[in-house]
Each structure stands twice: as structure tokens, then as C-alpha cells.
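assembly run, all chains below
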Amino acid sequence: MAEPLAKPRIVASDETEVDLGDMERSLGFLLRMAQVRVYEQFFRHFDGTAVKPGEFTVLRVIAENPGVRQGSLARVLNIKPAHMTKLVHRLVQSDLIERATPPEDRRAVELRLTAKGSEFVAQHRPDFETVHNAERIGLTRTEERQLLALLHKLAFKDLT
Amino acid sequence: MAEPLAKPRIVASDETEVDLGDMERSLGFLLRMAQVRVYEQFFRHFDGTAVKPGEFTVLRVIAENPGVRQGSLARVLNIKPAHMTKLVHRLVQSDLIERATPPEDRRAVELRLTAKGSEFVAQHRPDFETVHNAERIGLTRTEERQLLALLHKLAFKDLT
DNA sequence: TATTGTTATACTCTATAACTATA
DNA sequence: TATAGTTATAGAGTATAACAATA
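ok done. output:
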């Protein structure tokens, strides 16, 4: 992925300037562009492994909540049940997690990391730390804290 | 300002608590969750039209840069050329943009809004304004400005 | 009847490579 | 040879609806 780095005005390889206009103040657009940058960091660290951002998130939340229900996980992470089924199957086939049916509700599926899954998470967790990403991408610690707090509010604040 | 990180624990509809752990401080995760929220606003406003976020962004950048090359647009917006071809075809078929081959380089494709496209952008631009999104989602004007500035830096700052 | 998860389908976005037509 | 764009193919994410098993 050797795309040119975008700036307020961008000089493409053909020297053409493209003015983003009001899009530069568009929250949705900036969120997307920022995410592309951060994901590039992710893929740099996870190069070689077959695990993708969403999958690593799922692994970490399972690590934090052993035995969590598949449906609870889907709701919390904004993943549709149908997609969660496929995602879980991939992680099971990679021997990173295991499924179990709780006796008290045999419709449900509980998820836990396997030994290999625990090892995988422990091994890659440091690479995933925000500090790492934010610093490499050019934010100071103060800016990083501000950004995380604002994103958190944006993502989770109750709208009543 | 170092903000209080709201609700470390999330209560799903079945009363099951899921602890997101360190993910709550993960830049990539928060970017994604925030984006989901903001996109919900987008779809609320654009309900009924068949235009999606990426398409509306393309329309606005073409509006700002009449005759922009298809490839320049792809580079600036981090859209792959193959995908841009399909996206442009959809917009042409919707009669929102038109393609032209410049005589000085007959390999290239220049893009311009049609009258219908100009009208569409003019009509929906207000709905797309950041203020609208940010306020409805619970950020103050000050917070919004901070967030946009930080995201801009994250998205566009040169890494040298 | 309602809920948990699965299957099936479809469409978007992303990624890659092979291809054309121009330069 | 290199560049601009296209076509083809594949995988991942998202959305919806119909379905089975269980509550």
C-alpha cells in the first residue's frame, strides 16, 4: 500500500492539485481518513498473521470476558449476528477460541480463548497500544489523550 | 483537557456486562465505533436517496474541482482505481456526473457534475455539515473544533 | 411466542492481477 | 516502457430474511 500521503491540498503524481473544500471539516470524512492511517499501522504490525482488526478486537474482548456470550459480543461491538457467526468460525478454525454451550441455556454459545489464543493476544497486545499508534503517527501524549476522550464521548455517550 | 472516560462497562440488552478493557483506549477501535455513530446520522439524512457516504464525498470533491481526473480523485480519497471505476459508473448512471476525455491526454477521464448532480449536492450539503452531526451526537462546539483539528492532524500530517 | 444463533443471499468496499489504449 | 483506466476475480464487512433449536 504505497499511496501518497494526503494533505490539505494534495499533489498527486500528475501534479494535479485537488481541493477537498468543506470535506476537510467533515467529521465522517476525517474519521475515515484517520482510520485508514491507523489501520496501516495495524497491518504493519500484524503483517504475516492472518488476523484482522475486527478479529483482534474480538479476541481481546473475549480475553477480558471469558465465557462471554456470542450475542453479547455482537451487540457491544456493533457486529451483526450473522457476521459474528462467520467471524467466530474463522477464529475457531484458527484454534484461537473455543465455543461451549452453557447447560442453563442451550441456545447460547459461550466463547473462551484457547491456550494458543491467549498466547497470541499476549504476544500482540503491545503492538496494539494506542500510544504506539498515536506517537508514530505524529500526535503528542496530550493530543492523544484529548482525542481518545472526544472519540469515546462521540462513540458511547448516551443521546437519551 | 483529560476527560473522564465514560462508562467503562457496557450493559447489553440482556443485562450482560461486557468489559471492553484496554480496547477503550484503542485509537483504531474508538475511531471505528465513532464512525458508526456518525454514519448513522448520515443515513438518517440521506434516507430515501441511494447515495452512500463515499459517493457523496466524491460528488462534493468533484463539485469543488470541476474536471478533476478520475485517478487524482482516487489517490486523494484513498479509493482504489478499480473501485473508482465502478463508483463513477454508478454516479454516471444516476445522471449525477459526466465523464469527458481531454484531448491533451486521451487516456484520462475528467469528471464534472451534471445539473442534477449540482442540485443534489446543493440540496444535501447542509445536512452533511459537521456542526449538525457533532451537536446532535453530544459534542460542544469547542469539543468539535478540537476533535476536527486532531483528526485532521492524524489523517494528513506528514510523517517525513 | 420470543430468543439465540445459523444459513442463505446480496451488495459494498477492498485488493490484486491481467488487460487496453494511449503516451 | 510507463501511465490511465478497465475488467475480472476474490475476500471481508454489512444487511436482511428465513430458519432450527430452545426458552
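Chain A has seven helices and five strands.

Confidence is low (pLDDT under 50) at residues 1-15 of chain A.

not gonna interpret more than that til we talk
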